[in-house]
Amino acid sequence: MKLLLGNLAIIAAVVLFAFPADAGKLKMRDGKFYSGVVEKLTPTGIHFLWQREKDQPQIIKSGDSDMLFQAQGHASEVRAVPFDDIETIDGVTTDRFKPLFSSNMFYRTMASLEASRIRVASTGDFVHQIVAVLALGLVMGLLIPIALLLLSRVVPGESLSFFGALGFTVVLGAVGMGFALGSSELTRMFEFFASSGAQIGLTVVLMLIIAGVMHVGTKFSFFQGIVFTVVAGLGMVLARFAVDTVAKILVSAV
Fold it and tell me: In sequence order, which residues have a C-beta less than 8 Å from that of residue 6 and are 6 or more positions away?
């Protein structure tokens, strides 16, 4: 049963990360929309990782080949976009987006994870994408759980098993995505959240909720819940650098 569950988890992870990423929408003042994710704020604008369709090899477009694994994924490129040209980012106006991106840990972490997914989808053909997925999976499914496992031996309280740490990473990823979307919606709807202080406060509240649920529903302490959340979130951000490195190598080989 454990082997079956493990295999199902691997399959689910591969399917999740291999899906074409659709991290968000950039709406321009001229009415155009772009799919992608914000990677950086500058004093005058954003660095936007744009995801677009990639031209396929002629043999694939003609439909005369069974070599579908040669089909290319998406293409991506980073563009500097000035605030003056932007109407909304994920439905949020630029003045409210700045504190959301810079001060909300959950939104920033999930944006970094989505950037990793976009780069996975733009590394080349199916084989290259699988290699990039494995690089991301290595960090998400091995390095982060090992870090949590070792940390649980140091932080006072119960110790995590490897599969317990892996489960926490997966659940935190799912919950983090929900919190990121919720934070974006709250920021879009209420002007109250249009400040760094409010976004930091929202981040703290969400972290306390995770730690509280973890403490009540499991044998782990409230403090452990906070520490595990911070470390796993940091690991998800750092996973982007591993994917970036692999993606650059693979793209240069295409």
Answer: none
Quick check: is 83 in a domain? Answer: no
Q: Is residue 31 part of a domain?
A: no
Greater pLDDT, 65 or 176: 176
Look up the pTM and report it.
0.75
Pinpoint the alpha helices (H) of the chain.
Answer: 2-18, 58-61, 94-103, 105-121, 126-138, 144-154, 162-189, 196-217, 222-253
Number of structural domains found in the chain: 1
228 is in which domain, residue-wise? 2-21+93-253
| Rounded Cα–Cα distance for residues 21 and 121 (Å) | 7
pLDDT over 80 at 71, yes or no? no
Whether 220 and 214 have beta carbons less than 8 Å apart is answered as: yes
Instruction: Inform me whether the pLDDT recorded for 14 exceeds 70.
Output: no
Going by C-alpha positions, the residue among 88, 160, 72 that lies closest to residue 123 is 72
Angle at CA of residue 23, ends 20 and 28, nearest 5°: 120
Dihedrals φ, ψ of 190, to 5°?
Answer: -125, 125
What DSSP state is assigned to residue 141?
A: I
Residue 174 lies in a domain: yes
Q: Is residue 13 part of a domain?
A: yes
In this prediction, residue 128 carries a pLDDT of 65
pLDDT at residue 42, as a whole number: 92
With a CB cutoff of 8 Å and minimum separation 6, the contacts of 38 are: 24, 46, 47, 48, 49, 89, 97, 101, 111
Q: How many CB atoms are closer than 10 A to CB 230? A: 12
pLDDT of residue 21 exceeding 50: no
